[in-house]
Amino acid sequence: MSLRPTLAAPHRFDIEIKKSRFIAQAAATADVSAALAFIASVSDADARHNCWAYRIGELYRSDDADEPAGTAGRPILAAIDGQGLDLVTVVVTRWFGGIKLGAGGLVRAYGGTAAECLRTAQRLERVAMQAATITAGFAHLGAVHALIDALAAEKTDETFDANGVTLQINLRTDLLHRLGSGLRDATRGQAMLRLLD
After folding, report:
1. CA distance 12 to 29
2. Could you tell me which of 23, 27, 75, 188 has the fewest CB atoms within 10 Å of its CB?
């Protein structure tokens, strides 16, 4: 199962629209507290408006920051969703240049600035992971280690007792079937695989 990508690094995009200066800043944010911390860190107190939105899985929020309702925050959120991203926060800061843009112009300016920032940012593909334990006897220890190495599983814990070893691993969800069949073949069905919540 693949997940929507996020950003590999913070990114910034600047543009001038009818003498107003717009700066979009975007970053990957793992949770709401990280999103709010990013918003606070990049908002400019001297600017007239610091409008923002974030998407973190099913959680999302946006703020027009004193622009007319629906003309800034929602277009920024639409840009995040339109780029197919997740775990992302975008702040678009505006310095007013003296020419009013109107509601439609603001929607295009905020949404377009956010979309261009995200379009030009480096993406990080995300893959669903599953934690699991493998219990095997000492005779199968080498085969089990070879299999988890071949599948690029991350070993997070290894404990030994009188009967053998218990390994805790993280593995890409799409490789679980290969792990299960590989363990059956390598240990003649004697190793146990258990998925963790």
Report:
1. 15
2. 188
Q: Where exactly does CATH 3.30.70.240 map onto the chain?
A: 128-195
Classify residue 29 as left (phi > 0), alpha (psi -120 to 50) or beta: beta
Cβ-in-10-Å burial (0-12, 13-18, 19+) of 143 comes to middle
Q: What is the pTM of this model?
A: 0.70
* 96 in Cβ contact with 48 (< 8 Å): yes
pLDDT band at 30 (very low <50, low <70, confident <90, very high): very high
Three-state SS for 84-113 is CCCCEEEEEEEECCCCCCHHHHHHHHHHHH
